[in-house]
Amino acid sequence: MRKNYNFTRRRLYLPEYGRHIHQMVDSLMEIEDRVERTRQAKAVIAVMGNLNPTLRDTEDFKHKLWDHLFIMSDFQLDVDSPYPQPSRQDLTLRPQKLSYPQSRITFKHYGKYTQRFVSLIAQEKESPRATQELSNIARYMRTKSYEFNNEHPNNDSIIRDIRIMAGDGLEVDLSAISTMRSNYRQGSQQRQQRRGKQQRNNNGRKMQKGGKSHSRHNNH
Q: What is the number of alpha carbons within 13 Å of residue 155 lying toward its C-beta?
């Protein structure tokens, strides 16, 4: 008895359709009459659509099925298709290689977009919004610097980094940045102190209520 192993059979170009659909496609290629071959191909398309009901919700559902039919025939099937027949070259095109950006980032912890924003603001020499925009960028830079160094930078270091990223063309008043509050921990420490005080007050009220209920129980 001769065994028919899968590795001895022909390749399944689209395994999700199964071997029976591939055998149907092979039988189409054996039909000599073109009109009959086209009619049988439409019947195979209907079966393929029933096997993949999820494709019905996609765009160009019928077009995809006809493309799959030609792929399973190894682009050898000659029928009257309602869509252009794909070629092997169309499906084997490789995308163009994207060029890797070669621009140098002065301070990586700030990111390239921060440097780009600072450069754009430096070009707006007489813009009234330049000072406010630089202040917003300075606050963002301080946040990123703390994430990277785990310590808050002073205002002078932020101004120095802005001047380095902007180059020699920066003509904006940076005095507003130098007066920004640099101790971010002060607000968090005050909030923690308020929470601790409130928690101690709540614990004291609970102890007072517990003492009153205990004395009331002893009187009874």
A: 13
Q: Name the helix (H) or strand (E) containing 26.
A: helix 18-29
With residues binned 3-state (H G I as helix, E B as strand, rest as coil), the percentages for the chain, rounded to 5, are: 65, 0, 35
Distances (CA, A) of 190 to 92, 146, 152, 195, 211: 64, 20, 17, 9, 32
Which residue has tokens 């099925």?
65
pTM over 0.85? The answer is: no
Compute the half-sphere exposure of residue 178: CA atoms within 13 Å on the CB side of its CA.
7
Contact 21, 46 (CB under 8 A): no
Cβ atoms of 77 and 29 closer than 8 Å: yes
**Predicted local distance difference test score (pLDDT) of residue 186:** 45
What Cα–Cα distance (Å) separates residue 187 from each residue in 134, 181, 182, 197? 23, 11, 11, 15
Q: Do 107 and 161 meet the contact criterion of CB atoms below 8 Å apart?
A: yes
Q: Give the containing element (helix H, strand E) for 105.
A: none
Instruction: Return the SS3 of 101.
Output: coil
- In one letter, which amino acid is 31? I
For the stretch 34-56, pLDDT in tens is 999 999 999 999 999 888 777 77
